[in-house]
Each structure stands twice: as C-alpha cells, then as structure tokens.
Structure to design on (337 residues):
C-alpha cells in the first residue's frame, strides 16, 4: 500500500512543535521564532507535506475560487479567454469556475448565487455591456471586466485595443490601393463593435476616403451574418473591392458568399478579419487577419483580480492589448492576382 499522505500533526511531531505552531507557519503568521520556523519548514520539505487548500481557505474566510461569466461557453473568443484565466488561476492556487448567462435575468440569478452566498472571492465578467447585465454586478466586490473598458472609473478592465485594431486592418486595405472598403460589424450594442467602427472611420478619414454608411452592414459575429452581408451588397449591385469583417467567423462567411457568386478572392475582393482563429490559415484562400493573444486577456484579467482580492493595488486598472497583422492570400493589391 502507498504511504499515507502526511498530516499537519506528522509534521509537528517531526519538528518537535505543536500542530498549532505548524499552522501558524503555514499561514504566514509573524508570532513564530525564526529558528522554530526553520525547523517546521525543513520538516514540511522532508515529508512532502502539502497543506489542505480548502481548510486554509476556510480559516482565512476565502474560497480560493474565482468565477468567469460569459454570454456563452461555445464562442471561440470567450472560450480562449476562459482558458487563459484558468491557467493563471492555477498558478496562484485558485480554482476557476466558468459559467454562462445568455441574458440579464440569468446573469443576475448567477451573480446572486455566486456572490450572495460567497461561493467565490472575485468575478471576471466577459462583455459586461452586451446587454443590461452590468446593472446587476455588485460594485463593492472584487471584479474585472473583459472585452470592454469599464464605464465606471473604479472597476478594472482588460480588452483588445479595438479602435487601433480596426484602424490597422483598414489601413492595410487602403495601403493596397482599395478605396471601396465595406465593413461588417458585430452587434452595435457592444463596445468593441463601436470601437472597431471608429477605427475603420479614422483610417478612411486619414486616407481622404469619405465614410459611407451604405458600406456598413451590422452582423452578429456568426459566419452566416458575414455571408448574408456580402449577398446583400451583391443584390444591391454595389460589390466593394475589399471588406473588413470585425471577426474571422464573419470573414469566413464572406469568403463563402464570394465563392458562391464566383467572385475571385483576392483579385476582385480582398477580405480581412480579426482574431486569427485556428482555422484561419486553412480557409480558401487563407485569411488575412489581425491576430490577438486571446488567452493572455484571460491571464491578465485573472492576475489583476487576484491583486484586488489580496488588497494589492493593480499597477494598471485599464489594460488594452494590441493585435498584429497576419497577411495571407485573402488580400492583395486591387486588381492583383
């Protein structure tokens, strides 16, 4: 039979101290003599003792558990944020619960359960302004927003620098000679969609290209909405020479609609997206996109949240991350091969 896991009393016997003294050492209390602390730490090391995380959390009035709430758990971006958050939480000996709430009412019920019953020490909320859910978030609880800058100055946030990402994507198309550049947005009630639209407008303005509202179609982040958007332009008889889709899935739908309409990519239509999904390089043709490190968003948000929980003042309260252009065969000079 394997040796039983050593207990705090086993450590106390080996170190020749009481188990209360061992507990004080484990919990970082100051009222322990240096030589006694050294004896206990040596015994812990020799015996391979690991403190019970649950018991320690109860003693400190903490759960050592964080929660990440997103509108759903299937979206690539949301799932990648949660993946990064979980990795970072484990580094700091926290557990991460991930849950979804598709509407404000289910969000409120979930927050009431997690916060009202103190089941978690802090919350990460993805897309807090996608609907009215932000109204149900307790402002006196450790909290970090992801995907949007906090409208309230006392709340920390981590997001992509959406305005600059869109500016860079549109500027890439302009630099290739395109002047008829359409835009397919995400839902316009979301901050990131509005910010990306502003970046698109700024790039056009700097290039001396008038902003044309009829060249903008609102999507819903799905491939179907991208496909429908290009079909709409085709039906109107005003197909642009380039399209900036605010995410890769909508760009994928645009590529499909172009293929169905026998529009050649990129010689007749250049397409650029945002995210660099794992399949983006396998699209036909491979998709030019703005690559963002989505797991890092979750990691930074978790690190920030733990600082708040541990009463440390985060060095940055609003963090905006950049994205890099990955040029592939879905863009080229206007009229090029």
């Amino acid at each position: 039979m394997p040796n039983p896991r050593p207990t705090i009393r086993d450590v106390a016997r080996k170190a020749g101290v009481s188990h209360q003294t061992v507990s004080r050492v484990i919990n970082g209390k100051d009222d322990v003599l240096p030589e006694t602390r050294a004896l206990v730490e040596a015994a812990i090391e020799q015996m391979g003792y690991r403190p019970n995380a649950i018991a320690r959390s109860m003693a400190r009035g903490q759960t050592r558990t964080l929660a990440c709430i997103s509108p759903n758990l299937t979206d690539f971006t949301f799932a990648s944020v949660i993946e990064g958050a979980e990795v970072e939480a484990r580094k700091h000996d926290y557990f991460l619960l991930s849950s979804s709430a598709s509407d404000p009412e289910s969000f409120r019920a979930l927050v009431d359960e997690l916060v009202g019953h103190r089941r978690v020490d802090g919350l990460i909320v993805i897309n807090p302004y996608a609907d009215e859910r932000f109204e149900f978030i307790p402002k006196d609880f450790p909290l970090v927003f992801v995907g949007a800058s906090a409208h309230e100055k006392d709340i920390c946030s981590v997001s992509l620098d959406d305005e600059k990402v869109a500016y860079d994507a549109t500027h890439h198309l302009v630099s290739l000679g395109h002047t008829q550049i359409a835009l397919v947005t995400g839902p316009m009630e979301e901050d990131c969609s509005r910010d990306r639209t502003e970046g698109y407008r700024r790039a056009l303005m700097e290039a001396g290209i008038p902003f044309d509202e009829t060249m903008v179609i609102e999507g819903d982040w799905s491939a179907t909405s991208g496909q429908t958007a290009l079909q709409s332009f085709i039906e109107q008889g005003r197909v642009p020479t380039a399209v900036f889709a605010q995410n890769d899935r909508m760009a994928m739908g645009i590529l499909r609609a172009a293929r169905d309409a026998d529009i050649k990519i990129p010689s007749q239509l250049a397409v650029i997206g945002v995210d660099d999904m794992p399949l983006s390089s396998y699209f036909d043709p491979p998709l030019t996109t703005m690559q963002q490190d989505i797991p890092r968003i979750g990691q930074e948000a978790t690190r920030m949240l733990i600082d708040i929980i541990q009463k440390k003042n985060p060095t940055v309260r609003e963090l905006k991350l950049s994205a890099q252009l990955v040029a592939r065969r879905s863009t080229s000079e206007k009229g090029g091969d």
Summary: Residues 163 and 198 are 6 Å apart (CA to CA).
